[in-house]
């Protein structure tokens, strides 16, 4: 048995790991997809950095952070991704990064087409639709069939590329925030390249729980969060642009603080959350020490499978995310087929069983309940969830 698989089942190890985190008494949190917890040591480091910057103010920032520390942090981030440092720039979130990529992509002419699907994040949808108003392009929106499979997902894009020959740009989400479906990015990106379509990848939920290599995926443009599965403070994300494709993204609204050859000119220039950024070396160290995305992903998948396997065939319950290991991660959604109002069932889970989840709507397959265990979740909590779902079904 692989080490990460063996460790994923080790409740004693993960209970020891969970002891590194402060957890407020109350509902069992199964909505860990919103943002992740910082460890106790990261919180302490963050607090120290707040006090440091508050004391030293611009003296430290101008003399040390801007000249030394920010460069070192950027290099550590690039090492995490296995990309050159000049390919990444820090942002406040994945949404900020994706909006910058979409609005500054310079390869569009009036009459061109851009593509999105029903599973995209709402901010990405609105940004792509913004292109129609300001660039004169046509927005093509497709819906994925349900239940999805690897083959149907890839085929839906191949069909779109043939049907809409003026496509130049598309949005693609690695891990969809509504259902947790993991898209076959490499196959879709390869098909897009065949038809001359550029891909902007939303990696907000992927980083930290899925192992990937951007070169192998065939991705040149992407946005990510650091506050979900990496363990950083809120307000931290980054933009990725393959160095050879930097010229295809314009400086953000004429940004001039950095040279046109510097990726940092592709994001808005502002005073960032410097204390949060200064915690990143410790965050990266802790992420690597536990085994990185391979270890975290194996644990989250194990917890996911505990409850999914218990309810998959229960009448009155539909698990929205396939069991193909290529298409799922820790985030998975379900719905009660005998109840029209999924929010009412979210409320029942909380009020009757002390389980905190979240309803999600907007996808063609209908409203659902998103369930996301975290790294402090236990196998026993997954069994409690399964029992609650069965009783409510």
UniProtKB/TrEMBL annotation:
Q: Which InterPro entries match?
A: Aminotrans_V_dom, PyrdxlP-dep_Trfase, PyrdxlP-dep_Trfase_major, PyrdxlP-dep_Trfase_small
Query: Is the keyword Signal assigned to this protein?
Result: no
Q: Is this entry keyworded Transferase?
A: yes
Q: Which Pfam families match?
A: Aminotran_5
GO MF assignments:
transaminase activity
Protein name, per record: Class V aminotransferase
Report the residue ranges that make up the Aminotransferase class V domain in this protein.
44-372
Highest taxon above the source species: Bacteria
Q: Which species is listed as the source?
A: Pseudomonas frederiksbergensis
Keywords, sorted A to Z: Aminotransferase, Pyridoxal phosphate, Transferase
């Amino acid at each position: 048995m692989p080490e990460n698989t063996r460790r994923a089942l080790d409740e004693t190890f993960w209970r020891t790991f969970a002891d590194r985190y402060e957890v407020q008494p109350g509902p069992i949190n199964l909505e860990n997809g919103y943002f992740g917890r910082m460890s106790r040591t990261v919180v302490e480091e963050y607090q120290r950095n707040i006090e440091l910057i508050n004391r030293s103010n611009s003296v430290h920032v101008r003399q040390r952070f801007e000249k030394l520390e920010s460069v070192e942090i950027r290099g550590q981030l690039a090492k995490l991704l296995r990309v050159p440092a000049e390919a990444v720039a820090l942002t406040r979130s994945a949404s900020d990064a994706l909006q910058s990529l979409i609005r500054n992509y310079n390869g569009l002419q009036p009459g061109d087409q851009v593509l999105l699907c029903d599973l995209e994040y709402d901010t990405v949808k609105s940004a792509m639709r913004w292109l129609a108003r300001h660039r004169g392009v046509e927005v093509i929106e497709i819906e994925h069939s349900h239940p999805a499979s690897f083959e149907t997902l890839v085929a839906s894009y191949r069909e779109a590329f043939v049907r809409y020959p003026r496509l130049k740009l598309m949005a693609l989400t690695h891990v969809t925030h509504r259902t947790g479906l993991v898209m076959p990015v490499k196959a879709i990106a390869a098909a897009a390249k065949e038809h001359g379509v550029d891909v902007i990848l939303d990696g907000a939920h992927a980083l930290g729980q899925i192992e990937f290599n951007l070169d192998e995926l065939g991705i040149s443009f992407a946005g990510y969060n650091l506050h979900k599965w990496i363990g950083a403070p809120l307000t931290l994300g980054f933009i990725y642009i393959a160095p050879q494709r930097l010229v295809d993204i314009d400086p953000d609204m004429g940004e001039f603080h950095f040279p046109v050859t510097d990726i940092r000119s592709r994001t808005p220039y502002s005073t960032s959350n410097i204390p949060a950024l200064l915690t990143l070396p410790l965050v990266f160290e802790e992420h690597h020490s536990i085994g990185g995305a391979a270890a975290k992903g194996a644990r989250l998948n194990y917890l996911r499978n505990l409850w999914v396997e218990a309810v998959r065939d229960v009448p009155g319950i539909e698990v929205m995310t396939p069991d193909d290991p290529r298409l799922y991660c820790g985030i998975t959604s379900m719905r009660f087929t005998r109840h029209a109002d999924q929010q009412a069932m979210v409320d029942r889970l909380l009020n009757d069983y002390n389980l905190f989840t979240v309803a999600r709507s907007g996808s063609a397959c209908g409203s659902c309940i998103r369930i996301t265990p975290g790294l402090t979740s236990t196998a026993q909590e997954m069994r409690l969830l399964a029992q609650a779902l069965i009783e409510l079904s």
